[in-house]
Write a structure and sequence with these properties.
327 residues, alpha+beta, four-stranded mixed beta sheet, elongated
């Protein structure tokens, strides 16, 4: 290590001496060229002398770098290996940074969305403190069937008046003045008229666009046009589940039934049903228990079966049957 240090110091002293020797030479050369009125490329002698001096300085730098490359292995390593490697590493780092920047943008978007939800929650809390909420945001207020063969615009006017009258009884029950309090966007109505005029069977579902306090003067609503179609028909098996030997106890069966009913709600929602609850018919729990006491050591199957034809906004009524599975 001491040898390398000695060489480095010798090289530095040598470069200083070399620069000191060449610099006066360049100055003398520039002065002589200036006095000789020598010209390069039709330049004035003074500018020519300046250019010669600049070339001399570049010559000094070139000799210095050349000697460093020739004498110092470490300098060659830094110049020809480390710098390209560092540049390559920098480029790779920039490429690796792109997904992180995209992830940051997504995270910022999520944070903004959560802030909006938080502000909405704060507003809801303030509304709770100010008074009684009689209608919640997203709550269905009125459901009506639209007959495409009749005057759509007239039907919508009738539905609006009936819905307005119904909501007034909830929000301002003591006000006898026949004043409209429902507000919806004209663009929504235009879209509904256009869609319903094309034919088919439709249901108009009117929902509240925000929380409403008792005594509010206006209720903002959003109308949704839904196709009035069959979601399930009588006898349809909506969901099912297999019971193994480890499930043949009342606790496991109760959990299975709860899970099946939840899956059934999700299934009818995916098919377009607007009901939030499923009605069960009969004491199916007792029926399943009695069945299991009479039949043991075999596999069973639970089925959720529809007991009626049900359309988009009609109640869903089901029963749960238990069946043997042939081995």
């Amino acid at each position: 290590m001491s040898l390398y240090k000695s060489v480095a110091w010798i090289l530095i002293v040598f470069l200083i001496l070399l620069g000191g020797l060449i610099a006066p030479f360049g100055d003398i050369l520039g002065t002589k060229i200036g006095k000789a009125r020598f010209s390069i490329l039709k330049l004035r002698p003074k500018k020519t002398a300046t250019i010669i001096t600049i070339i001399t300085g570049g010559f000094i730098s070139s000799i210095s770098i050349g000697l460093l490359i020739l004498v110092s292995e470490e300098f060659r390593q830094r110049l020809f290996v480390d710098i390209p490697f560092l540049q390559k590493t920098l480029d790779e780092s920039k490429k690796a940074l792109i997904p992180l920047q995209e992830e940051r943008k997504k995270l910022e978007g999520t944070i903004i969305q959560k802030e909006k939800e938080l502000n909405q929650l704060k507003n809801n809390i303030q509304e709770f403190r100010r008074g009684n909420i009689v209608i919640k945001r997203g709550q269905p207020l009125f459901i009506a069937e639209i007959n495409p063969s009749s005057n759509i615009k007239l039907d919508l006017t009738k539905i609006f008046n009936e819905a307005d009258k119904f909501v007034r009884k909830i929000v301002i029950p003591n006000n006898k003045e026949p004043k409209n309090i429902l507000l919806w966007r004209p663009s929504d109505i235009t879209k509904i008229e256009t869609t319903a005029s094309g034919g088919g069977k439709w249901i108009l579902l009117i929902k509240s666009a925000r929380n409403v306090l008792k005594g509010d003067n206006y209720v903002f609503v959003t109308p949704d046009l839904l196709e009035n179609k069959f979601v399930v028909k009588k006898g349809d098996v909506i969901t099912s589940s297999i019971l193994g030997e480890s499930d043949l106890n009342f606790k496991s069966i109760n959990l299975k039934i709860k899970s099946l009913l939840k899956e059934t709600r999700d299934e009818i929602k995916s098919k377009g049903s607007q009901v939030s609850e499923i009605n069960t018919n009969g004491n199916f729990v007792k029926k399943i228990r009695d069945f299991l006491q009479e039949n043991k050591n075999i596999k069973f199957k639970l089925e959720v079966v529809s007991l009626r034809d049900s359309k988009t906004v009609e109640p869903i009524v089901v029963e749960i049957n238990i069946l043997k599975i042939e081995s």
